[in-house]
């Protein structure tokens, strides 16, 4: 392998898919995936992501492809959660793929939070139906899956609107919720303020504080390492750093700038310009 390929790639990968236990131990680092392709999922796991969130809210994933992405991550020791478009049957179907959890966007009321819990948890905690999907070994391990799913599957609720912010304490208090997750970009848009402004920072802090006060883990989308460290100091455990497409664009843009600079500075090229 040529020098420069894989020089900064981490080799440590998670060995378990129980994110609940991982979050209890300390911060969990991951990223959002918007570029469809199981190879992308594998690459993110190989690079060291402890969890990959497949973004079925915004990206071109369907249920059949989501299952392949989950399978790809698990084949190399990785963990996947799925961000669903909305509360509904898609929650149970997403978990049937074998994903370790689901992320519900734009939760604005305690009633919506309770609906999400009902869709994700089996009775008596919820109302999820049993199915012979991949998570239950296509029905061969149905009883075992049902017995452990309520405790092991992660339910993440995103608070990212003005209405959600107004109701965040009630949302966080709903039994069956594991993580309250701040969506900083949509939150800024909903509030009509800039990301990082005083109003925005106070809103993010309120979301994190509400989750912690209710005994939940809290998380947030971070732009970079410095932001992740800052929010971890405030108690955030689920730290999703950027997203695959943005990382690819920044890295390749930097690579091209460095290459153009090297070409310009190379003695042979300077002589050819004279």
TrEMBL record:
GO molecular function, one term: lyase activity
Family: Belongs to the HpcH/HpaI aldolase family.
Alphabetized Pfam families for the sequence: HpcH_HpaI (PF03328)
Name of the featured protein: HpcH/HpaI aldolase/citrate lyase family protein
Keyword field: Lyase, Metal-binding
Keyword Lyase: yes
Keyword DNA-binding: no
Organism: Blastococcus deserti
Domain HpcH/HpaI aldolase/citrate lyase span(s) in chain numbering: 37-249
InterPro entries assigned to the protein according to its UniProt record, in alphabetical order: Aldolase/citrate-lyase_domain (IPR005000), HpcH-HpaI_aldolase (IPR050251), Pyrv/PenolPyrv_kinase-like_dom (IPR015813), Pyrv_kinase-like_dom_sf (IPR040442)
């Amino acid at each position: 392998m040529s020098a420069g390929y894989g020089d900064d790639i981490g080799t440590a990968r998670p060995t378990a898919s129980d994110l609940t236990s991982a979050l209890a131990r300390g911060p969990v680092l991951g990223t959002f995936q918007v570029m469809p392709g199981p190879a992308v999922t594998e690459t993110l796991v190989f690079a060291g992501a402890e969890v990959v969130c497949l973004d079925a809210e915004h990206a071109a994933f369907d249920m059949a492809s989501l299952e392949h992405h989950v399978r790809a991550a698990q084949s190399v020791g990785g963990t996947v959660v799925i961000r669903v478009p909305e509360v509904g049957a898609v929650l149970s179907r997403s978990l049937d793929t074998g994903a370790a959890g689901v992320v519900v966007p734009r939760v604005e009321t305690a009633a919506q939070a309770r609906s999400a819990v009902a869709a994700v948890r089996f009775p008596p905690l919820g109302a999820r139906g049993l199915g012979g999907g991949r998570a239950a070994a296509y029905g061969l391990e149905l009883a075992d899956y049902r017995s452990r799913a309520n405790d092991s599957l992660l339910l993440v609720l995103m608070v990212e609107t003005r209405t959600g912010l107004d109701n965040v304490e009630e949302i966080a208090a709903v039994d069956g919720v594991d993580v309250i997750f701040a969506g900083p970009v949509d939150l800024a848009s909903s509030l009509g303020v800039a990301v990082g402004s005083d109003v925005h920072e106070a809103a993010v802090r309120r979301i994190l504080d509400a989750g912690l006060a209710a005994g939940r883990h809290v998380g947030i989308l971070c732009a970079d390492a410095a932001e992740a460290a800052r929010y971890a100091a405030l108690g955030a455990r689920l730290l999703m750093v950027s997203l695959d497409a943005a990382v690819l664009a920044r890295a390749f843009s930097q690579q091209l700038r460095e290459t153009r600079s090297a070409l310009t500075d190379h003695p042979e090229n300077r002589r050819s310009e004279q």
